[in-house]
Amino acid sequence: MDLFSTSDAKKKEANAPLAWRMRPSSLDEVVGQEHIVGLGSPLRRAIEKDTLHSFVLYGPPGTGKTSIARIIARMTNSHFEYLQAVTAGVSDIRKVGAAAEDRRKYYQQQTVLFVDEIHRFNKGQQDVLLPFVEDGTLILIGATTENPLYELNNALLSRMKLYILEALKENDIKQIIDNALKNSEKGLGCLDIKIDEESMTILIQASQGDARTALNILDTLNNSYTNPDGHLEVNAGLLKKVTGKLIVKYDRSGDYHYDTISAFIKSIRGSDPNAALYWMAVMLEGGEDPKYIARRLIVHAAEDIGLADPNALNIATSAASAVQYVGLPEARIPLAEATIYLCTAPKSNSSKVAIDEALAVVRSKNRVTVPAHIADTSHSQAGPKLGKGKGYKYPHDFGGYVEQTYLPDELGPVNFYHPSNNGYENTIQKFLQTLPTKNND
């Protein structure tokens, strides 16, 4: 590299975004992922000893996945290759694999392949990659923001370890911002930038655990508002101009979507209205379709409350109807009303258990026959010629109930429905106990 290319490289680095310049250059500089690369951790020991294995780095954006891969590239004696999953094709994978085979054969050098956004690889691309990983031609490092349990083939995933990176905590983000403000070589340390406590809180909140977002906001503040003399006083008003309305990181089709709706439903099932309202607010603020939330409330009302409070289903369907009529933002109110009602209603899953048990029995039988006495008699000759309806006892002729068989003879006695002692089901249970035990044992 000559003097001019060295100068160009330094100029390019100086003009790069702050988030790029402040990427950690060693494992000690990685913030907030001590369980992954902290002193004594298995992965750190493998990196330091250069005895790498194939693995996946899974976590939210801005938590250090690519930075860790870049550090490994500098520390390993293996040849390091990089592929961006959104642009790489099957031919690129085969080319890297073939070169790795030659490298191992002729130079006894291992090849490490880092695939960014590996969840973007389709099944065909993953199948091409598999043999190279399986026979050790490639040590594969994949980075993904999507759940690899769903996005990667089982065959490929079974040959890789999984390391889960966590969204950065408030203190982690503060440390990263402080580092950028103090670092004169790569950061903003040569400037006189001050951030008061309230502004720091707003900045941390706006970043939502994403170091890149935090540094990008800081970069924007510097580029837009720093005085010619390098002085900048960051206050809450200035920060709100830059960050605008806080946008909750919420992917309506991604892993966080399913985790959030799961937390919402489990909070209702656990009778915690505060938690349920919080998760609903996360979904609404993140742009979730309110009709989706309403559908989940209907399902929950039937599945987890059921006959313990039959009115719960009416409340849920009414909320769904209200959402259709009024839309957001007003629809948040009937959704909240239904959520609170369902949280505080008595719980029973007996209806779900009952139908699932009945379905299991039906699926286990090779035929289904309807007893003649309860078969259809709408045709005038169904009784005389086919024997249908013969022996049927009309319950109203016996005061509302009469004992008779309603199931196929070959099935025998079954009991799918087991009412709980909760809410209205306690009344149902007492009613069933007044009936002959033949239908209730």
Description of the molecule:
- The chain is an alpha/beta fold and 441 residues long.
- 52% of the residues lie in helices and 8% in strands.
- The chain is built from 21 helices and seven strands.
- It has a five-stranded parallel sheet with strand order 2-3-4-1-5.
- It is flat, with a radius of gyration of 32 Å.
- It starts with a helix and ends in an 8-residue tail after the last helix.
Descriptors:
flat; 441 residues; alpha/beta; two-stranded parallel sheet
What is this structure, in a nutshell?
With 441 residues, the protein is α/β, with parallel strands linked by helices. It is 52% helix and 8% strand. The strands form two sheets. A five-stranded parallel beta sheet has the order 2-3-4-1-5. A two-stranded parallel ribbon has the order 6-7.
The largest beta-sheet arranges its strands as 2-3-4-1-5
The poorly predicted ranges are 1-7
Q: Count the helices. How many?
A: 21
Q: What percentage of amino acids are in beta strands?
A: 5-15%
Report mean pLDDT, rounded to a whole number.
Answer: 88
Write the layout of secondary structure elements.
Layout: H1 3-15, H2 18-21, H3 34-37, H4 42-49, E1 55-58, H5 65-75, E2 79-84, H6 90-107, E3 111-116, H7 123-134, E4 138-144, H8 148-151, H9 154-157, E5 161-164, H10 170-182, E6 192-195, H11 197-207, H12 211-225, E7 231-234, H13 236-243, H14 255-269, H15 273-285, H16 290-305, H17 311-326, H18 332-344, H19 350-364, H20 382-386, H21 424-433
Helix pairs in contact: 6-7, 10-12, 11-12, 11-13, 14-15, 14-16, 15-18, 16-17, 16-18, 17-18
